[in-house]
Amino acid sequence: MNKNKLGFHHIGLKYADLEKSLQFYRAIGLREVVRWGDVGNEIVMLEMDDGGRIELLPHGGNEFSPNGKWLHFAISVDDVDGAYETALAAGAVSSRAPKTVPLDSKPDKISIRVAFVKGPDGEEVEFFKQMP
Asked: Which domains does the chain have, with CATH numbers?
């Protein structure tokens, strides 16, 4: 039985034009909370009022990935490693083992712990925790 407290964190969306995407999502009420990466390869996290987020990722366009334009969805967990192991035990296939990633982010530097698995229909699921 999974003992993690589960919560929605974000969905990753590939963009073709960052400024156009930012303009649209800001217009519908999302606000930028963190950004990282080099110009032309920037990643931007936008937040809704309830804390749900959309992560804008570079290199989108009209072509679709196997998951469509939405790359993955993330589930906020207390224990990334435990959630990853639980998912594997339930039949998921590993995409990326748990790791801690320090981000060169703005306005504050943050670190995250993440792991990725493929679900039963090939969907990409991320287990996510922002480190203190």
From this structure: 7-130 (3.10.180.10)
